[in-house]
Write a structure and sequence with these properties.
It is a single chain. By secondary structure, this protein is mostly helical. It folds into 2 domains: 185 residues, no CATH class; 63 residues. It has 10 helices and 2 strands, in the order αβαααααβαααα. Helix 2 packs parallel to helix 7, helix 3 packs antiparallel against helix 4 and helix 3 packs parallel to helix 5. The radius of gyration is 39 Å and the shape is rod-shaped. 16% of the residues are buried. The N terminus is likely disordered. This is J domain-containing protein. Keywords: Coiled coil.
Length: 298
């Protein structure tokens, strides 16, 4: 067994794990894994919800948006022709800008999937020299060597050690191993000499696993935060909440789109039949420009 001076020169990574520390580290690693599993399940559930909503949204509204865009394009072309004809007749108008695309919520680029979780390294099976816990009798002998009153440097220390040795004798007589371990640790005995331990390879494996799980946790947290901020996800949550109250937001949106398509087709019908010398042409263009830009037309 190494001396205290030898042990003090060993790095924290090389120092053996005690039995209790090994148990604590394993439990800590499992808790990290459990938390990571929870985050990944939360991300997967939200990703699935948003993707399913995107499919439902597109199935119900995508064709209507496409139709509205097409009609808007035809209407813009017709009004440009009319504006150019009016200019040839001496009516100077501001140029009409292309219409903005129909407002919609789309998935945009595909919602990011989580990268595959890397497998943890295999627990080392070799180079893990065990330091078994000492027997109860060995613990008692070590306690006696450390706490015997005859070894006390002062009278006050001797009195304290007499009480401690009474505790040691009582713990040994009742085979209370935990009490003996606590007394030895409190007296300054090294944990591996009291509790046993394992070699550095296992400690390195635990540290490596903890670092990998923590890095993966940060990735999942970042992607989950990104997913929650997406317009598609926010609309999904809002629509589902409204549907729980009996509303049908997508049906309402579809009805509004059909109304807009019908209105634009009526505008297109009128715009294609107006002539440059028709006094209604300027009013039509003013109304069209105002609706597109929010400003009047000179």
């Amino acid at each position: 067994m190494s001396s205290p001076a030898d042990r003090s020169s060993i790095s924290p990574l090389q120092r053996p794990l005690t039995r209790l520390e090994l148990q604590r580290r394993r439990q800590q690693l499992q808790e990290l894994l459990d938390y990571l599993d929870t985050l990944e399940q939360e991300h997967g559930a939200l990703h699935h919800r948003a993707s399913a909503f995107a499919a439902r949204y597109d199935a119900q509204l995508a064709s209507l948006y496409a139709e509205l865009d097409a009609v808007e394009g035809e209407l813009h072309a017709a009004t440009r022709v009319l504006a150019e004809a009016l200019q040839r007749h001496g009516v100077q108008l501001q140029p009409l800008q292309p219409p903005p695309p129909s407002p919609r919520v789309t998935a945009g680029p595909a919602l990011m999937q989580l990268p595959e979780r890397p497998a943890l390294p295999q627990e080392p099976a070799a180079d893990t020299v065990e330091l078994p816990p000492p027997t109860l009798k060995t613990l008692y002998r070590r306690a006696a060597m450390r706490l015997h009153p005859d070894l006390a440097p002062t009278d006050a220390e001797r009195t304290a050690r007499e009480q401690q040795m009474m505790d040691v004798n009582e713990a040994y007589a009742s085979e209370n191993r935990a009490r003996l371990e606590a007394l030895l640790l409190a007296a300054g005995e090294s944990p591996e000499r009291v509790l046993g331990g394992t070699a550095p390879a296992l400690k390195h494996w635990l540290s490596q696993c903890e670092q990998m799980v923590q890095a993966r946790t940060r990735v999942v947290q970042a992607q989950l935060a990104w997913l929650r901020t997406q317009a598609l996800t926010r609309m999904c949550v809002a629509v589902e909440r409204a549907e729980l109250t009996g509303l049908r937001p997508l049906d309402i949106m579809a009805a509004r789109l059909r109304t807009q398509i019908q209105e634009r087709r009526q505008e297109l019908y009128i715009g294609q039949r107006l002539q440059a010398d028709d006094r209604l042409a300027v009013d039509f263009l003013r109304t069209r420009y105002s609706r597109m830009t929010g400003y009047g037309l000179r």
